[in-house]
Amino acid sequence: MFVKRLGGDRSEAARRYRRIITFEKLAAELAEMPLASPRLLGADEQHLLLLFEGLEDARSGSELAADGDFDEDLCHEAGRMLGALHSSAVEAGELDETPHPLPPMENFEALSLPRFVDAGFAEMEAWSFLQADRQLVSALRTLREHEASTLKVPTHGDLRLDQYLLHGDTLHLTDWEELRLGDPARDTGGFVGEWLYRAVRDIPKTLRHDVDRPFDQEATHREILTYGAREIERLHPRMHAFWEGYSREWTTAGKLAGQAVDADLPVRTAAFAGWHMIDRLLANSQYVPRIGAADRAAAGIGRVLLLDPHAHVPTLGLEKTR
User: Fold this and answer.
1) Which of 31, 80, 115, 199 stands the most exposed, by the fewest C-beta atoms within 10 Å?
2) Distances (CA, A) of 172 to 46, 51, 81, 82, 164
3) What is the pLDDT of residues 148-200, one digit of tens each?
4) CB under 8 Å to 111, separation ≥6 — which residues?
């Protein structure tokens, strides 16, 4: 068994608890949906405790990706699972309809005093150059506006590779604390953004294996971007396999059967993948003394995607499937 206790602010933890319970009800109603998740065995709302079936010897998506085992077939299956979720029917009022809290646009204008006081050096460093980039702030504001005007579907809301668990031959999706009606691009962009971020984070390993490069020479920003582009090209088939599985499931199952994915979804997916890179920078800045070159490069790639998402749809494998 796996026991999870929700901590932090009591009222927010209670909302996260209710979203998890809501997913369990939704999953029960949609039993034929190809979306596996660890079975909920019991719950205690007073103590915000949840008891799940333990998946013994399961491997997370992050572990699989690090070992090179999150292959195209698994990416395709991950896409199918998400397509099934997004195309599922829900009753009015069944899911949380509040806007997702990220990106926190108020922080791109100014940090609150408590946030400023609690921030470490790296976090302040990150906010200082993000707030000064008015083009980036404008692009994020545009993304939020587009998100608000799109068709709302059931979304995971916090999609990362480590939310996937492979148990035997079955891929599971976990952690439904941010389940809500929202823009499907937030989830698809999160998945694609995870692979982009991994591509950038793997650059030091790639540099070490370059026999034509002096081992004691520090990588330049240009080198990091060049090697990052190569990694993204290498991972393109996996991102495309995900998109193919997602698109096909969307058009063959659920309440939206027979409808194509909306024309702007690939563009918004690219933009949300860009936000994911910025989000990873901000998350990591809370735990390091200084921002590293790889995180700066990731944020730079995220900025490029946010400023012109249309141009990068093919690069990310989001082109139309046959």
Assistant:
1) 31
2) 27, 16, 9, 11, 6
3) 999 899 999 999 999 999 999 999 999 999 999 999 999 999 999 999 999 88
4) 119, 127
Structure-block tokens of residue 80: 């199918």
Strand residue runs (E) in the chain: 2-5, 40-44, 49-52, 59-60, 153-155, 164-167, 170-173, 180-182
Beta-carbon contacts of 108 under 8 Å, excluding residues fewer than 6 positions away, are 130, 131, 137, 140
Global pTM exceeds 0.70: yes
Chain segment 113-147, per-residue pLDDT in tens: 999 999 999 999 999 999 999 999 999 999 999 99
For residue 119, give the H/E element and its range: none
CB atoms within 10 A of CB 206: 17
* 3 state SS of 173: strand
**Of the candidates 295, 279, 285, 300, the residue with the CA atom closest to the CA atom of residue 122:** 285
Nearest partner of 266 among 209, 190, 188, judged by Cα:
188
Match 């909302």 to its residue by tokens: 15
pLDDT category of residue 40 using cuts at 50, 70 and 90: very high
